[in-house]
Amino acid sequence: MNFTADQISHLVNGTVVGDGSVTVNTFAKIEEGHAGALSFLANPKYTHCIYSTKSSIVLVRRDFEPEYPVSATLIKVDDPYQTLTGLLTMVNDMMSPKPVGIEQPSYIAPGVELPEDVYVGAFAYIAAGAVIGRGAKIYPHTYVGADAVIGEDTVIYPGAKIYHRCRIGARCILHAGVVIGADGFGFAPDANGVYTKIPQMGIVEIADDVEIGANTTVDRATMGSTRIGQGTKLDNLIMVAHNVEIGEHNVFASQTGIAGSTKIGSHCQIGGQSGFAGHIHVGDHVMVGAQSGIPGNLPDDSKVMGYPCVPVKEFYRNSAYVRRLGELFAKINKLEGGIAAGCSGNEK
Length: 348
Fold this sequence. Notes:
By secondary structure, the chain is of the alpha/beta class. The protein contains four helices and 39 strands. The strands form six sheets. Strands 8-10-13-16-19-24-27-30-33-36-38-39 form a twelve-stranded mixed β-sheet.
């Protein structure tokens, strides 16, 4: 499907600079652009690419003024990255298949009522008492446990498992292999050091508009609820332990682990392979660099990195010191050698 620059500009409230009749039918990164592709320029470090890109159309900021001739047609917008996201979503919605109906074989427990526009894939299992919202899509090999609730327009991809009584909000996306509501890691040692399992009697509550990446796990609470707030996005391979509470509109990169009963605020950005100790509190608008260890509480607006984490500026300062350790040791050894030689001479 082809779109002209003028048509795209009208959709995104942009301003065309160049040939408004040029057409595109795909997307490409600006450094890999080709004829018929639409690209975007949001990060200044890629500015040089706009002068050599072969893309037909490039989204740029309204205040962008090229220093050299540009062959591509430009569409000036307030936020190129956000605009691109909207265009990708529109095209994806137009091109993606819209499965509906109940495929066989699948199991739907007696008494479970499914709205007409729900999709249930082959080999899915929906247990007694489950509630499935309108427009939900339950892909093949998915398990929805007893008395679980799936909100409207939520998509659960193949192989995901929703344990009993867990609650998933509206417009959520759970990717393949997600497990919601497995037992929390709770064991009590007796006098002989033998561990006895503590029954995990709580649930998981996931609010609206949450997306959870492939093979991420969210454990049920020992008592009460493990909670994930509205709009939060979890990457692949993340572990959320029992009784964790995560606020709204956070992003967590892959392989992050959050230990039990930790509370994390809203609008936080967490880098990959970060680890949070249990029973701590992390405030709002916190930024955590990749591979950081969080052993204690963090106040609002913290920016930390490292293991254990320290303020970002301190981390970079310490890293600079570490890079100079070899040089510093060489100087110390030289000084020690000089001192030893001096002492030896005095003895004579």
